[in-house]
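Help!! Second protein's tokens look totally different from the first
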Amino acid sequence: MLDYAIPAREYALVFATAALITYLITGLVRLVAVRIGAVSPIRDRDVHQVPKPRMGGVAVYLGVAAGILMAYQLPALSKAFTSSSEILGVLAAGGLICLVGVIDDRFDLDAITKLAGQILAAGVLVLFGVQWIQVWLPSEGGGTVFVLSQIQGLLVTVLITLVLTNAMNFIDGLDGLLAGVATISAAGVFTFSMYQLVATQDDSAASQAPLIAAVLMGACLGFLPHNFYPARIFLGDSGSMFIGLTMAAAIVSAGGKLDPSVSTFGPRGTIALLAPLIVVVAVVFIPVLDFLLALIRRTKEGRHPFSADKQHLHHRMLNIGHTHRQAVLIFYLWALVLTGTAVSLAFLSWQVAVIPALIGVAVALMFSLWPRIRARRLTRRRVEETV
């Protein structure tokens, strides 16, 4: 494993290219969005108080495309293109889902039409070779590898793509929230997939995922200065759906081809072979938790499960006393803890990884609840002073 030379400079170059192009082109995309009327209206559940242009996903897509084009020109990273069409699949499917998102950002498509576009884009990914091929399942003998049929692989890939696409859409509720969480999640996927590449030393099968994650991480980071509070432009559905699809492609590319023999490298334990699925869970944990809580809350109140309200997790963070920026930074912390814990299974046994994970959860909980803790302390102090 130590014989493999990581092309760090090349990865840094494609990361920087994606970040720079996204940063520079976002201003132009903002002007186009305003000109064509792709502007977010003010709804009762929204946090922003003035209309803001959407369509930021176009800038993110162009940044990713620029990073991929740069990678194609580099000696080491170009191997990801010669052995597989997965990278081209990300561009094709990403362009399709981004187009659907742009139409939605301008004309507000219905949910069925967007779902059809998501399924079609996921199918394009599969056509270009982005498909979950095998799953490691724990068993009494230490575990077995279950090779999926073509139909099973198709269904698993489409399901993961739909979950991640809609999860990213669901979390996009505060300025800079999705762009920052996606940057952290992409960094986690990059770290995990890079470990797989180094462990297997297989440029033909393991070089696509880290490249996809690197350009996505760069593009999201380049967009963040325009999107952090107070945002000048929103990602819109064009951004949230594209980010979700690209994240799904990176995870499927890394985890769907995982070689169980990699467990012989380093300190990885048996449970570490489930790391790809755990990374998926970590990435979608916050939005899925929010979604489930919303379903329970609305059902108990006798309302439609999919009706809108202002009681999402990010609304609650604001309600208990956090500022807009504080709430976003706390979500970043949670994303860092969850993703870091999932990825750490590639390097540590779960017995070792659980300790920093618990510490991270405790710290995140403390910061999340700090306004209430401080309010109770002030109330107690006032009571004591009056006595």
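Here's the second one for comparison:
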Amino acid sequence: MPEVTVLMSVYNGLPFLPSAVNSILQQTLKDLTLLIVNDGSTDGTREFLERIDDSRVRIVNQPNQGLGGALNVGLAMCETEFLARMDADDIALPNRIETQLRFLRQHSEVGTVGSQFAYLGENGRTGFSPQLPCDHETIYADLLRVRHALCHATILCRTALLKQIGGYRIRGVGQDWDMMLRIGELARLANVDRVLYLYRLHQKSANATKLQEMQVAHAYASHNAKCRAAKRTAPSLTEFTASRPAESLWRRIAGRADRYAFSQYRQALLDVLSGRKVTGYARLGWAAICSPQRTTPRIRRLAQRLFQKNSRIPASA
């Protein structure tokens, strides 16, 4: 039996799904299972999946349940020691699974390991790699502060541990944040300090339509983790939302500005990766003006990463 199951949930994954599937089937670790849960797709995804001719691929077709529900279906079917996540529009670099599996074999105290990632444009151009922390203490503290510290799609974890915490509990967005915090209470979290994953940006991923819902869900996951640490009963999502203090007019305006700036920031990255550099960098500046408190640090970190990358390129003779 393989050691690793790669779990992918897909809903209307075309046109990027074939590249995502191939990136797993072409891993340097050949002995794996790719379990794909087709979560009620209507765009030809099912027909593509049925044409895959590889004995390592298992396919489950079901009515739409949402990401968390689909992942729980796949988790219940997973019989391997390790489980890796993979999104249906991204690309795993060839040595991703082998590298992360070696890491978990060498660090028995770690329950889940992710990796650094780079953004991937619609035309295949890559760039911009946000630096994620690698040590457990920083990762867990950042998750509690609702800061991005572990990319869910990059993780490889111990299957028994994920089943022990009950899989994914929060319905809708935020199920990954809650899951990673609960694993972090039982085992250590880590990131491999290498880019092993390409996170695709496209028009659907660059908008901020669900950002407010996501912010609430992440805050709820963090609040529940603090309740568990204090041995208090965690509220339901409805109770948590109702208990939050009403925002002032200024805070509502600031929140909308933050979400708009985030959307512009993601669109700017997509512009640059698509070759529209003038538009992209202008949009980055506009995002910083709209929400300087949140966007400027992102742009500063981005500039530092670009400077470090360029400084390693030797000058031509």
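Reply: Different proteins will give different token patterns, so don't panic. The chain is about 45% helix and 20% strand.
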